[in-house]
């Protein structure tokens, strides 16, 4: 039988095209079959898509070039997930569906794929016979047991709500994930576990592998080589991997026997993709679990306000872990008012005297401390003491950061790097000085304050080289480090057993940010940081978190002192409700970029004009275009326009109708570099 087949290919979306093209096939092809088809003069990868009722086109169709049916077709649920994601985040279906496949897979022809699969099966055979020794399991406490009972119930209830595993730091959330995964594997299903950052995958991977020695556990993230990524993806797709552990892109892994979805640290902003298709892997994971009727477990000590709102309204179910495992105590939080220091000439001390004293005590007792400062480099800016020149980036609305170890000025946004000038480029004055403090300078200053202490730094610069991250972590675990200085990188997930003191030396910058999510993020970050202390239940000295601030009366610190997430979240939700912000409103940003800000602005204005009638009909608000906080990045000017609705459905309907018009408007604005719609933006 010869007939038209809808094939989705990666073409820029044009109005009316809908993401699928018609081709001729000599036989019936199952939806989800990977094919190669001619497109213009090229041959490209495509996916056979289920037929919507579409008229047979009157043009002559080109035949499908190859079908890659050595591999099973992508499952209908996978196709539905992609359709939903493309619709919700307003991307072309083909653009998204092909982009989430391993790049290697898109290049292979039918015989190459068959060959890869043969090699893969050959490689796997011996491992399958290996019998594994039974693993000794830790005893669960009653809270963990209750959580597992609820997860078990959700596994047999197709209408079970998403589950929030709300556990204080060190309460054994990972153990619950592992037990839940074990149950899924017993049911011959696959488990998908998402983590927010690549640097968290090695330790969790090791733990999962140790727990399931007879099963195949794979990691899927962007740091894999193309060949590794293809192999991992195929193992998941063929149902040969039992556990897939990965970062946000793993939410699109094809898993035919999916039985459980876990999203660890669900509040983490890293789950939102910030380029291309701006999807939230956390939200898609929830949708995917709903599609496949399997339990989804969101884990956090500080859930996102969106998730917490769903818990309060009864849409999600909260499973609480309120105690640390083994009975370890949460650190005592001490807020030090920097305003109480005696007034002296010059800048305030790096560490308030009582904090310095507390650090010295830990040092004397051989305990470890963690000093947290969320700013890397030596100093955020250099300045001239004579004329006031500052180390601005020539291409961005940002200062270039001073890195002392290689004497460079580096822009953390566009990468523009130069040697530090000998003299002020404006007036020739030789006295140019660092302003403020980053982790590199803090490490140096702590060295002077704590002579003899073994200090290590843990941030994106210090861990960049191969093996550096693992070496530093190993040294901390082995007790070879006394004081660890780090950015937010150090606060996430790591299970440091010997740390008894955590200090946040400059938490104030985030208190008065224009970003409405800043307090939520800062609270999560500080509570996570606090959570690195006192994880060893057998430790004899109580653990502490020190916060030195100029604003001790801030509500955030009061809630932190009590470890009271619910109180903090409640006050934030009240503010969001009265300000009409998410989760009480639904937002999208139309972003535009051009060398000339006026071009970007004109595009947004014209876009708003075409939308006026539709917006009014749907009750959607369109705000005037404004520049974002960082208007210029790498020489490109950016503008954005906020679209707001009280109902998600109305916003979605409006965006779907608006997008084709925007494609038309775009043609009238030649100088425009890029434009994109960002649904549920992280920052506005
Ligand atoms: Zn100067
Ligand atoms: Zn720059």
Explain this structure to me?
This protein has 684 residues and is an alpha/beta fold. Helix content is 33%, strand content 21%. Helix 5 packs parallel to helix 6. The two termini are 53 Å apart. One zinc ion binds next to loops.
Structural class: alpha/beta
Query: How large is the radius of gyration?
Result: 27 Å
The side-by-side strand order for the widest beta sheet comes to 8-9-7-10-11-6-12
- The average pLDDT value, as a whole number, equals 91
Total E-strand runs: 28
Distance between the termini: 53 Å
Provide the list of bound ligands, each named once.
zinc ion
The number of distinct helices, counting runs of at least 4 residues, comes to 18
The level of helicity is 25-40%
**Global morphology:** globular
Main β-sheet: number of strands, strand sense, barrel status?
A: 7 strands, parallel
- The proportion of residues in beta strands is 15-25%
Uncertain runs are none
What's this model, at a glance?
This protein is α/β, with parallel strands linked by helices and 684 residues long. Helix 1 runs antiparallel to helix 9 (281-292), helix 5 (142-155) runs parallel beside helix 6 and helix 17 (597-618) crosses helix 18 (648-667). The longest helix has 22 residues, at 597-618.
Protein topology:
Elements lengths: L2 E7 L10 E6 L8 E6 L2 E7 L17 E2 L8 H13 L4 H7 L3 H5 L2 H20 L12 H14 L7 E5 L5 H14 L3 E5 L6 H11 L5 E4 L5 H12 L5 E4 L11 E7 L16 H12 L3 E5 L4 H8 L4 E5 L10 E6 L15 H12 L3 E5 L8 E4 L16 E3 L4 E3 L6 E3 L12 E4 L3 H11 L5 E4 L9 H10 L5 E4 L12 E6 L13 H13 L13 E6 L5 H7 L3 H15 L6 E9 L2 H22 L2 E2 L9 E2 L2 E10 L2 H20 L4 E8 L5
Parallel strand pairs: 6-11, 6-12, 7-9, 7-10, 8-9, 10-11, 13-23, 14-21, 14-22, 20-21, 22-23
Antiparallel strand pairs: 1-2, 1-4, 3-4, 3-5, 15-19, 16-17, 17-18, 24-27, 24-28, 25-27, 26-27
Helix pairs in contact: 1-9, 5-6, 17-18
The protein binds zinc ion (2 copies).
